[in-house]
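Escalation from tier 1.

The customer reports that the assembly of four entities below gives different structure tokens on two consecutive runs. Tier 1 could not reproduce it. I'm attaching the input and our single run for tier 2 to review.
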Amino acid sequence: MARPRSFDTDAAIEKAMHVFWAHGYEGASLPDLLEGMGLTRGSLYKAFTDKKTLFLKVLDHYECKAVQAGVALLTDPAIPNGADRIRAMFTGAYQAVTDGDQRGCLLCTAAAGPSAYDPEIAAAVEQGLTALRDGMEDALEASPAHGDLDTGGRRALADMLIAQYVGLRTMARARVSDDTLRNAVRSVGVMLA
Amino acid sequence: MARPRSFDTDAAIEKAMHVFWAHGYEGASLPDLLEGMGLTRGSLYKAFTDKKTLFLKVLDHYECKAVQAGVALLTDPAIPNGADRIRAMFTGAYQAVTDGDQRGCLLCTAAAGPSAYDPEIAAAVEQGLTALRDGMEDALEASPAHGDLDTGGRRALADMLIAQYVGLRTMARARVSDDTLRNAVRSVGVMLA
DNA sequence: TGTGTATTGTACCGATTGGTTCCTTACCGT
DNA sequence: ACGGTAAGGAACCAATCGGTACAATACACA
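Tier 1 run:
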């Protein structure tokens, strides 16, 4: 029995995600967000409380979208060999760069930035990274070459792979040469063999 | 034939480095810097032009200090096996975290942050990372286990290791659990064997 | 067709941002 | 001792920051 919202909340979060992705948390100003989301201050604050709350919702959205897509790839039964899934994930990250996407990974940018002083953001970042790590672990379980690893060994290797992933995507954002990125991806593949 | 500077420029840059290291480039405000460096606006702008120029000098200082220390370790003839040097470097990074240093690596923070939109900063970051990568390469050259690699193979492996390093230090800044960091370091060591 | 209610848009807020101006201060060379 | 010159310091600047107040608006329900 009142005026309904004239925009879709999820769509607005999706748009906000792209703004934060490009500029980072601190680098994204309110005007940036308002323009990118196509709404005014009143609407934004009414719907999302404040900038940080919005960012947390964006991180959540990112995790539901980008991270889950990664996990889906890592657990894709259509690729029987788990090591192949991991390789596919890394080459995918490299592909993104050569396709012109220099933004890296939102989670990794947040990790290097505000999560250093904001526990809530840090928790959201860790949650996403842990999800990816668990996906890596699942993939390793489906890898013949790593069948002899015990649970702890798989976990440790997955932790290494997630560090590798964070490094790769961070360097991608820093516009490191394609050669270096490709080499890094290739070497991971070799090491996994 | 004029009033001399009452502070040591290098010492001031060193102090500025710690401020940027803790807060990041965008997160470090002028008042933060002034307090940390112990001088006033007039002196700072007279000596360092502006914030970005100061940051570039800080990056340069960091490279001369922290990066060169890393390279020295990677080329240390006192450790005959190059792979041991690399292991030492990674365990050192892990040690820093357990010793309470959560700041990660200034270069890596810069990589994830302003280097995405500022070419000069990006160039400085790349220079530092390349120096480290070259150090890795030198270390691999002194590793019996990697003696059969050709130049390209060594380069590729070094690129992987630098990505690993960036990931590790970025995750350290994000307060990821010690277990994960230790696992990542350990796995790198195992993979190098 | 009212009437109540939540959204929307705009004007505004104090605080803070990076940066400048300009007067004072202190040193070096003569 | 003095004069030229550069550093130090504080007041000041416009612009922007994230956030709020409130009036105009538009919808759902009766």
